[in-house]
Amino acid sequence: MSAATLRSADLPSAQPGWQRLLAPVVDPMVFDFWAQRLNPVWSWAQPLARVVERIEEAPDTVTLVLAPNRHVGPFQPGQHMNLTAEVQGRRVTRSYSLTGIPRPDGRLSFTIKRMPGGLLSTHLVQHTRVGDVLGLGPAFGDMVLPRSVHGRWLFLAAGSGITPLIGLTRALAARQMPVNLQLLYWVRQREELCFVPELKALAARHPNFRWQPIVTEQPVLHPGEVGGLISAEQLNALVPDLVERQVHACGPGGFVATARELTEPVAQRFVAEGFTPPPVVAPTEKAEATTVQVHLQRSGRTLAVRTDQTLLAALEAQGLTPPSGCRMGICHTCSCPRVEGRTQDSLTGELTQEATQPVRLCVSRACTDLTLDL
């Protein structure tokens, strides 16, 4: 049988019974090395996916459609997954929203905007091509549809905040739009708008769906556009029935904070995700930053780390590359057990020192000498 006709189901790794039988004698890394000579997404247990389609959505924004192997788990529209690629000789992981809905063929889609200085986003947007293979993590995130949907809904999307909300919009459309849905979509320049033909088609097909493009940095507006940053006056004009609606907001942290302030007190419900971390709580353990010793138990290394840095930033500054994803304390990819010592959560200010408790490196600071199972 040729490599071209050999299917993943023909490999022992695709049979859970075979894996249980062979696990004591198979080295997964060796298996992956040889299996991927036949097909780069075959693996013993590693979730991988091949890029099968690349769609230019807007300047510096592409949709990548991926065909996953059987180790990639399920997802719900509105969730995220960590994507991993090799960039400049090292593996880089970041979290991105899924923009599609579950499909019979299992394919996944991610719409990615290149961010200034973004190592992985630049690689995915400018250099990733059909046939490339990416690593994936499990889906996470709570901004998903309930089993039963009803009432009047409002989606507020700013820039890349459209990505989870287009997934939710597509999921509602697949249910024949059972709610009255209004989508407000802010961009700086109209050229940044994504999914315009699809949104127009959905509005034409579903009378209870409306969408409104809002351009914030172009004084001359095209027909159908409005301008201006999110404000009480703007929402009053565009959403006169706000008090009857459930609100989902996504975008930069400042946008989400403003959306929350303007809508949460009056709307039926408010759910949000921000693309930037919440304000960081100032260290409270000591008046001034000091240096402590962080011992990495598995590698045997001991590092000097400042108490005003997150552990992830401190480790990366000294050349280490622990697994990470969202870098905002959401995905838990960077979590590792604490052996001893005290840390502070930089988002809440909470101090903890329980042994074996997971520490999220991206949002935790060392307060004392610390030992991590890393």
Can you tell me about this structure?
Residues 44-146 form the FAD-binding FR-type domain. Pfam families: FAD_binding_6, Fer2, NAD_binding_1. GO terms for molecular function: iron-sulfur cluster binding; oxidoreductase activity. Residues 290-374 form the 2Fe-2S ferredoxin-type domain. This is Ferredoxin reductase. The structure is a single chain. Residues 1-14 have low confidence and may be disordered. 20% of the residues lie in helices and 30% in strands. A hairpin with a 2-residue loop joins β3 (80-87) and β4 (90-97). The chain is globular and about 65 Å long. It has four domains: 1-44, no CATH class; 47-141, Translation factors (Elongation Factor Tu (Ef-tu), domain 3); 152-274, Rossmann fold (3-Layer(aba) Sandwich); 291-372, Beta-grasp domain (Ubiquitin-like (UB roll), Roll), CATH 3.10.20. The protein is built from eight helices and 20 strands. With 374 residues, it is α/β, with parallel strands linked by helices. The protein has helices spanning 16-22, 28-38, 119-127, 162-174, 196-205, 232-238, 253-263, 311-317; strands spanning 48-58, 61-68, 80-87, 90-97, 108-113, 133-136, 152-158, 180-187, 209-215, 226-227, 245-251, 269-274, 291-296, 301-306, 335-340, 343-345, 351-352, 358-360, 364-366, 370-372. A six-stranded antiparallel beta sheet has the order 4-3-6-1-2-5, with helices on one face.
Task: Summarize this entry quickly.
The protein is α/β, with parallel strands linked by helices and about 375 residues long. The protein has 8 helices and 20 strands.
Average pLDDT, rounded to a whole number, is 86
Number of strands: 20
Helix coverage percent = 10-25%
* Shape designation: globular
Q: Gyration radius, to the nearest Å?
A: 23 Å
Could you name the CATH homologous superfamily of the largest domain? Nucleotide-binding domain of ferredoxin-NADP reductase (FNR) module
The biggest sheet amounts to: 6 strands, antiparallel
Query: What would you call the structural class?
Result: alpha/beta
CATH level 1 class label of the largest domain: Alpha Beta
Query: Number of helical segments?
Result: 8
Question: Order of strands across the widest beta sheet?
Answer: 4-3-6-1-2-5
